[in-house]
Specification:
Length: 159
């Protein structure tokens, strides 16, 4: 993986937009990037579970959970599966659980926080649609760059 800094990328490509949310960096991989796969769901991680089971090919799963802090959209088992299948990371507008295990997993994970409660599994949500949160629009195929400084979204590759 190429080393980068989101501040340096932002300086070089001012058209790249920062997601204006207070993400925490929870994964074992503190810096990650890749093309976005988008999921919109509310307190139901059925689509996240299905997605991490696919070949990741270095992509990033961007999940819009509506900012809910009531149910965790990612736990240790799904994180381990994502890492094993070659996903670079996840950016979650919501919360996660099993943070100690996720911190030991070779996967990037940015989320709003943690909660110990799992989601319901209702099979609800949408995939590969435009997401609107944190002051930006994120479309499937956009390029995501994340590190301890935050998350950038770009229509073109920056590395």
């Amino acid at each position: 993986m190429t080393t980068f800094s989101t501040p340096d990328l932002s300086d070089a490509a001012p058209e790249a937009l920062a997601i204006e949310l207070p993400f925490g960096n929870y994964g074992g991989r503190k810096r990650f990037s890749g093309a976005a796969v988008t999921i919109k769901c509310h307190e139901d991680n059925s689509l996240v579970k299905a997605c991490v089971g696919e070949p990741g090919e270095g992509r990033v799963i961007v999940v819009d959970g509506g900012g809910s802090r009531r149910r965790a959209l990612l736990g240790d088992m799904l994180a381990e599966q994502a890492a094993a299948n070659g996903w670079a990371g996840l950016v979650i507008n919501g919360v996660i659980r099993d943070v100690d295990e996720i911190g030991a997993t070779e996967l990037g994970v940015q989320a709003l926080g943690t909660v110990p409660v799992k989601t319901d599994k209702r099979g609800e949500g949408q995939r590969d649609i435009a997401l609107h949160f944190g002051g930006v629009v994120i479309e499937a195929g956009d390029f995501i760059y994340a590190d301890n400084n935050g998350v950038l979204v770009s229509k073109r590759p920056l590395l």
